[in-house]
Specification:
With 183 residues, this protein is of the alpha/beta class. The protein has a single domain, classed as Pyruvate-ferredoxin Oxidoreductase, domain 3 (3-Layer(aba) Sandwich), CATH 3.40.920.10. Helix content is 40%, strand content 26%. Strand 2 and strand 3 form a beta hairpin. The two termini are 22 Å apart.
Length: 183
């Protein structure tokens, strides 16, 4: 098994953090990992994306032409990465910011989620990328929810221990949506 995902959107949406959480969870599950961040010079409000590759064997290359999954948190990200999802792959679209456009690709699974609303339900409407991570884990099962919870506890506790409970609540909201909503 070797799978790749790109988390893409505006800087400040927690995309690089979310990729780190997925990478740490994969390590906890005994998988090989590449985490590759990319962001524009603007920081918050500019473009940001991060690629995570997980595998049950050594990963030969960090170069990804087509992704098994993509998370598009805004319209520019949908336009850039939607066409790069492999046939049969998963595209998660944040309908809180992308309301009218779909990928228009019948050969992929498109999961449209109101990430801001789900994050608010989980405890903090700013944690939209954690919602997407939960949906990805719920839908694809590349890593276990337990390993993601442990990774969230570890990473969040180092920087902002006061939000660990909220991170976990938002992850659960996304996980539930990923398990429940049909693509």
């Amino acid at each position: 098994m070797e799978c790749s995902v790109v988390f893409a959107g505006f800087g400040g949406q927690g995309l690089l953090f979310t990729g780190q959480v997925l990478a740490r969870a994969a390590i906890k599950d005994g998988l090989e990992v590449f985490w590759i961040p990319s962001y524009g010079p603007e920081m918050r409000g500019g473009t940001a994306d991060c690629t995570v590759i997980v595998a049950d064997h050594p990963i030969g290359s960090p170069v990804v032409d087509q992704f098994d999954a993509a998370v598009a948190m805004n319209l520019p990200s949908l336009r850039k990465f939607g066409p790069r999802v492999t046939p049969g792959g998963l595209l998660i679209v944040n309908t809180s910011l992308v309301t009218s456009q779909t990928s228009a690709r019948a050969e992929i699974n498109e999961l449209r989620l109101p990430c801001t609303e789900l994050a608010a339900r989980g405890g903090d409407d700013k944690l939209v990328s954690i919602v997407a991570l939960g949906a990805l884990v719920g839908r694809l099962g590349w890593v276990t929810p337990e390993s993601v919870r442990a990774a969230l506890r570890e990473i969040s506790a180092k920087k902002r221990p006061e939000i660990v409970h909220t991170d976990l609540g938002v992850f659960e909201a996304g996980l539930e949506a990923g398990l429940r909503v049909t693509a």
